[in-house]
Amino acid sequence: MSNPSDRQQAVREKVRKGYARIAQSAKTSCGCKPASCCGDKTSKSDAKRWAESVGYSSDELAGLPEGANMGLSCGNPVALASLRPGEVVVDLGSGGGFDVFVAAPRVGPKGRAIGVDMTPEMIAKARRNITAYRKRTGLDNVEFRLGEIEHLPLADNSVDVVISNCVINLSPDKPQVWREIARVLRPGGRVAVSDLALLKPLPATITKMIEALVGCVAGAVLVKQTVTMAREAGLVSIELEEKRDYIASMEEVQDPLYRKLLRNLPKGATLSDYVTSLNVSARKPRRSSVGR
Questions:
Q1: By C-alpha distance, which of 152, 132, 148, 151 is closest to 140?
Q2: Rounded to two decimals, what is the model's pTM?
Q3: CATH code for 20-283?
């Protein structure tokens, strides 16, 4: 499989299958104990505590449709985005709709919250929750679209804000994701991403572990590469905030995936020596040729 596009598709299919299993599982996520974006939350309370630990309020979580919070967050991009009424916000890799359902009340009846996910099972799960959301809020401003974040099913210059929560690191073509973000944003539009990034390269044994990839670790790139990709896509005012406490929490619970990763790290090393949660803010210039 020497063709880069073939390799990318192989990674994409492995991730798709992994998250399909999460969507279909009675559990609320994908293979670790309650403190990681892949966390195997064994109860709703575990998922709730984890979401609160990365910045979501009790009120936001209490208002979510059943099953929307699957414990897949590594930050709170909705808060980072400072959403305003009337805006159109799109969530890349929306999963069960968690951040979409948190964002939609903030943009209100004249705004729109759109989730994009490549996994049909996740899209189906999120769409089933729309009825409960409408009943609770009285709003009809949410939709979910099947598509890859490298090829967004959105028109040029059609979105005010792009958010994403622990998803871009999973993409096998991250520069293309950032180009798509720039394409769909209106001039002056904003980006608010929470993701995992590397402080230094991971050992090769870990990058080959698909469990780590689906768990958001092996697909991460260096912090400085994230900045480069966003800048080369045409975005400006790029700001970063490292949140190393996320990985520290992952270490504290000693989940099964973390223990497996630890066995493949150099002696005495911890995952937080390599990985951080990263908040990324940026915007599209008001006068730009991006996406035209």
A1: 132
A2: 0.84
A3: 3.40.50.150
